[in-house]
Amino acid sequence: MSRVQLALNVDDLDESIAFYRKLFGTEPAKVRECYANVAVAEPPLKLVLLQNPGHGGSVNHLGVEVEDVDQVDAAQTRLAESGLASVDERAATTCCYAKQDKFWVQNAPNGEQWEIYTVLADSATFGCGPTEDGTCSTEAVAGAGCC
Fold first, then answer.
1. What is the pTM of this model?
2. Where are the alpha helices (H) located in the chain, listed in sequence order?
3. Distance between CA atoms of 92 and 83, rounded to whole angstroms?
């Protein structure tokens, strides 16, 4: 199963979790410092909430979660054949409290950031851009690229 990922910047993580719990009628799949994700069955959606005070309500990045590395490879090949460039983040990149194999699609017409990824395993750390104590920083969640 593939599903679209929508990563939103939120001002208050707890308030946002409460809202989306009601909206989609489901509990978060993962909650960590400055971060939560909700795996919505219907419609198929991975909703990622990134606490980023002052930027609430804006899109952080978009993605497509696929089942395995073969599907990541197939998507990258298909997009390359269509003339779209990509930037690899392979070999179990740590991002958003998960080990992932992924790539970022380049040159979207409006500057939006799209990733195609699969989750390989859970991670105790946020990944690219965390503070030294392992929590996320506003610089990490506000920027393009990993979370």
1. 0.80
2. 13-24, 69-81, 138-142
3. 26
- 133's CB contacts (< 8 A; 6+ apart) are none
Angle at 80 between CA 72 and CA 82, to 5 degrees: 120
Handedness of CA 55, 116, 83, 140 (dihedral sign): positive
Quick one: tokens of 89?
Answer: 């983040």
Rounded CA-CA distance 37/126 in Å is 13
* Max CA pair span of the chain: 43
Distance CA 101, CA 95 (A): 10
Tell me how far apart the alpha carbons of residues 91 and 95 are, in angstroms, rounded to a whole number.
12
Tens-place pLDDT, residues 32-64: 999 999 999 999 999 999 999 999 999 999 999
